[in-house]
Amino acid sequence: MEQPTRTIAESATTLSQIILPSQTNPAGTAHGGELLKMMDNCAGACATKHSRSIVVTAAIDNINFHSPIYMGNMATCKANITYVSNSSMEIAVNIDAEDLLQGTKQCCMTAYFTFVALDDNLKPKKIPQLELQNPVEEAEFEEGRQRSKERKENPKICWMSLY
């Protein structure tokens, strides 16, 4: 039986929320952990839509905080798959902040998430491959393949805290 394919657009996901006081630090900007949680949720939904499986976060790479998100701003997180292997998916995620009173938007955070699809026994599961639609998607796929290769060639180890 031939494995199905899916387009990047089919699983692209967007989540938005207003940043509340409980999500901010004393400076009135969103806690980084709150934003990472939002990104993980958005990327996880994207990975689930593509694989139609339970998924788990395997890695987060290239986390960049470009500018703060202030209390009262609407944070919009967008996620799309860039690369798929047998059971894992790399997902590009970004958060934009919109000042709803001023009507201004800016990119605030970017990262790459890797998710693994699991079967009913919680073992890695083969997932649909990507049906690339244009040269931009093809270029992103090749860049994702290279990042995946680098992650495998340079695995991170778990270390013990000194204290």
Please tell me about this protein's structure:
The protein is α+β, with helices and mostly antiparallel strands. It has a single domain (5-153), classed as Thiol Ester Dehydrase, Chain A (Roll), CATH 3.10.129.10. The chain is built from 3 helices and 7 strands; from the N terminus they run βαβαβββββα. The chain has helices at residues 8-11, 32-51, 135-153; strands at residues 5-6, 13-18, 54-65, 74-84, 88-99, 104-118, 129-130. The strands form 2 sheets. Strands 2-4-5-6-3 form a 5-stranded antiparallel sheet. A two-stranded parallel sheet has the order 1-7. Strand 4 and strand 5 form a beta hairpin. The longest helix has 20 residues, at 32-51. It is globular and about 50 Å long. The chain starts with a strand and ends in a 10-residue tail after the last helix.
